[in-house]
Specification:
single chain; about 200 residues; alpha/beta; five-stranded parallel β-sheet; 5 helices
Length: about 200
């Protein structure tokens, strides 16, 4: 299946307001932004960095969606509405992901190299959620509207709040399993923080 056909099929599958092929092509800014990103990303990967940035900024003006040309976005991604959406340079968005308006896949400003999130296949990030840093949103995970996510989210869970906490696992509100998953997340966050502190101390010697 070609990129255009797959992208339009995803829109029609997920949005009951999409009535026709022509309507989707003419009125959905998410499709325009994703199509433009394919060109920007090609230019970026072939050394035309400035031209890639200029192209992406032009389409940011027209769609209100800002996607850095360095971001890696698979086919079959659905951006619904899209206004205010920001995707950073080293972000990775896999097939079947749904992103809503106001979402940020951003960096902390402190990391180098891979510094933006990876959103795995089939995940959903709701309106105005802020996903920050080189973290991973697991496959089929759901991030609630307005959540602030600063640590990895396991597959097939729902997180909400500031900072985001697990409220459902496999679609169920199973308190013992939720508590266990949150303990794991806290352990790995603390471990990463200790590793970063050790790295900073050693680099200053």
């Amino acid at each position: 299946m070609g990129w255009w056909k797959e992208t339009i099929a995803i829109v029609k599958e997920n949005d009951p307001a999409a009535r026709s092929l022509l309507e989707v092509l003419l009125t959905y800014p998410g499709i325009k932004a994703l199509a433009a990103h394919r060109i920007s990303h090609f230019l970026w990967n072939h050394g035309c960095k400035l031209l890639a940035r200029m192209h992406s900024q032009f389409w940011r003006f027209w769609t209100q969606i800002e996607i850095h040309p360095g971001a890696t976005i698979a086919s079959g991604v659905f951006i619904d509405h899209g206004a205010g959406l920001v995707i950073g340079e080293t972000a990775v968005v896999e097939k079947g992901v749904m992103l809503y308006h106001g979402v940020t896949l951003g960096g902390t400003g402190k990391d180098t190299g891979k510094r933006h999130p990876t959103v795995k296949e089939g995940a959903l990030v709701s309106a105005h959620a802020q996903v920050i840093g080189p973290i991973e949103i697991g496959a089929k995970a759901k991030v609630g509207a307005g959540a602030v996510v600063v640590s990895d989210v396991p597959s097939d869970v729902t997180v909400v709040g500031i900072p985001a906490k697990i409220v459902r696992v496999h679609g169920r509100k199973d308190e013992p399993v939720i508590h266990q998953e949150e303990e794991k997340r806290e352990y790995y966050v603390n471990k990463m923080e200790h590793a970063k502190d050790a790295s900073h101390r050693s680099s200053s010697l």
